[in-house]
Amino acid sequence: MTGPLPAPFRTADVHLPDPYPLYRRYREADPVHWAGDGWYLFRHDDVAHVLTSRRYGRGALPARLPQECPHLRRTTANWMVFMDPPEHTRVRALVAKSFTPRIVRELRPRVRRLATDLVAELGAKATEDATADLVGGFAAPLPILVISELLGVPREDRPWFRAQAVDLQQATSSRVARRADAFAVADAAARELDAYFRAELARRRARKEGFGPDLIGAMLRAEEELPLGEGALVGTCIHLLTAGHETTTNLLAKGLLALFAHPDQLAVLRERPELMPGAVEELVRYDSPVQMISRWAREDDRIDGRAIPRGAKVTLVLGAANRDPGHFPDPDRLDVHRDARRHSGFGMGIHYCVGAPLARVEAEIGLSELLRGLPGLAPADGEAVRYAEDLVFHGPERMMVRIHA
Q1: DSSP states of 327-363
Q2: Contact call for residues 192 and 157 (beta carbons, < 8 A)
Q3: What is the model's pTM?
Q4: Nearest Cα to 359, choosing from 294, 290, 405?
Q5: CA distances from 277 to 143, 186, 286, 352, 360 (A)
Q6: Residue 288, class by beta-carbon neighbours within 10 Å (0-12 exposed, 13-18 middle, 19+ buried)?
Q7: Is 8 helix (H, G, I), strand (E, B) or coil?
Q8: What residues pair up with 37 in beta bridges, in sequence order?
Q9: Among 150, 192, 286, 354, which residue carries the largest CB count within 10 Å?
């Protein structure tokens, strides 16, 4: 893609199925870009600088939400992703005590069972022409089933949970711009989830047999040593539910889509499934589930000679940073042998994704079970992938696949 840059940068100008050519133009011509209401950063080093510097903070989302959304404001006020220290440190410590490598390791057999069952159902649900929607039949339900198991949510409540998680995500900036009732839908979901988890916490505390072996039980036990209050516990439960849902759905769907586009790499993984853990890192780098995040300057700074004043909004384009040739040679090529661990797809610094180990396990097992259980899996002929109108939580909302060769 050539020609002058469309200025200022707008997410509406991005071609959702492939934003990377536009990212490349900005990264090469104007990597520290002023867009009128804030700065956009497109290079890996600049993104890493902001993510790891104390000069920048996450900023509180509730202050930017409408007053007519009291439930959404209260819920997100207790999400650690929108906190700065010391509040962030306290809440993250609670989750870290509960979200241990041992818990994630012990989840692997359950994740595999859930993935195997969904693969079988996907094959059984294929239409007469042997096609099915990978998002609706696999990529979306797997993470909601896994996080529900982790939280201890009853199986019968899980379809309702997925619906609430989808509604809550309507409050993202990209979707608010396109849907008039987005905030109202998200606020209603926040109200329902808040009521559910408050009732669940009360029920757990009233039980004489203890808090249970799941993540809610672990947080209740940890909270005895590190009390945070009901709001923080409820908010953290909702945050884990929503944060672990759409991002992992996008990772699974876009991971398979990238492998379809690189049949040589797909063949490698079919022949050598032991490479899947490293391949997941490369898939996150190649097409990040979250394309951009924002920070606010807490003090004056300079990036590449540009003055970033205190209070300025800075948007970090993770998708562009992960295709920076200064860090990843031949970055537009998928290479499952690449050491891609330096990617920024899970963030960096104090806000590094606390659920990253679980997301890796879900992607590793989910993609492995798809390739093993459906050896003829391929894109459906003549069926375009339909992307959600969102560049932040970026991924297909419908992706038809052919089940049999």
Answers
A1: TSSSTTS--TTS--TT--TT--GGGS-TTHHHHHHHH
A2: no
A3: 0.89
A4: 290
A5: 17, 34, 15, 19, 7
A6: buried
A7: coil
A8: none
A9: 286
Tokens (6 digits) for 51: 């993510």
Strand partners of residue 26: none
340 φ, ψ to 5°? -105, 20
> Can you tell me which residue has the tokens 């920024």?
344
Burial class (CB in 10 A: 0-12, 13-18, 19+), 207: exposed
Q: Average the pLDDT over each of 12-21, 122-131, 331-340 and give the range with the smallest value.
A: 122-131
What is the per-residue pLDDT across 2-58, written as a single tens digit (0 to 9) for each? 566 668 898 888 999 999 999 999 999 999 999 998 999 999 999 999 999 999 988
Residue 246, pLDDT above cutoff 90: no
Distance (Å, whole) CA 59 – CA 62: 9
Looking from the CA of 50 toward its CB, the CA atoms found within 13 Å total 34
Report the phi/psi class of residue 268: left, alpha or beta, with left for phi > 0 and alpha for psi in -120 to 50.
alpha
- Report yes or no: 186 and 171 within 8 Å, Cβ to Cβ: yes
Average pLDDT over residues 306-329: 96
Distance CA 319, CA 345 (A): 8
- Contact call for residues 391 and 294 (beta carbons, < 8 A): no
Question: According to DSSP H, which parts of 53-130 are helical?
Answer: 70-76, 87-98, 101-125
Instruction: Give the per-residue pLDDT at 183.
Output: 86
Dihedral (Cα; 147, 282, 272, 379), 10-degree rounding: 80
CA distance 26 to 320: 9
d(CA 264, CA 334): 10
Matching residue, tokens 């241990």: 100
Q: What are the distances in angstroms from CA 396 to CA 123, 134, 243?
A: 20, 10, 17
State the residue for tokens 């909601």. Answer: 144
Per-residue pLDDT at 342 exceeds 70: yes
- Closest by CA to 378, choosing from 404, 343, 348, is 404
CB 148 within 8 A of CB 157: yes
Give, in order, the Cα–Cα distances in Å from 25 to each of 46, 259, 285, 303. 16, 25, 19, 19
- Number of residues assigned to the chain: 405
Say if residue 15 is exposed, middle or buried (CB neighbours under 10 Å; 0-12, 13-18, 19+).
exposed
Task: Please tell me the distance from the alpha carbon of residue 94 to that of residue 226, in angstroms, as a whole number.
Answer: 7
Question: Per the omega criterion (within 30 degrees of 0), is the bond before 325 cis?
Answer: no
